[in-house]
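Appendix B. Chain record.
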Amino acid sequence: MDKTDGKIIDELKKDGRMTMKELGARVHLTGQAAATRVLKLEEEGLIDSYTIRVNEQKLGYPVHCFLNIYTDSLNHQPYFDFLEKSKSYVRNNYKISGEGCYLLECRFPDNEVLDEWLMELNQKVGYKLSIVIRR
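Structure tokens predicted for this chain:
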């Protein structure tokens, strides 16, 4: 991977829907040369997928939080079952080292729903809550 490939990746991170002609113009290549490089980056696994970023607030989920999850048992299945039931709130669940066993990222429509959800979660695992103030 060279500097041009790095620029291509940076530009696609900003807007994955642009045409290859537009991408080429941004990185000083022809559209065909940009497309060839993008294909190569995809084949090498450097570009894994394309996605969109959704405005969670406009979708009705303005409360953004992270939770450090602490388990007392080696059986984490009750926690996983609870997450499966809570799919509409859970954005990411990371197995981590350091403080806690998991780092859970969630979105909620309001603090009341969050509070009710936390009461259920607390029956499965311990947690430490951090609410996002601003990105």
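Further analysis of this model is presented in Appendix C.
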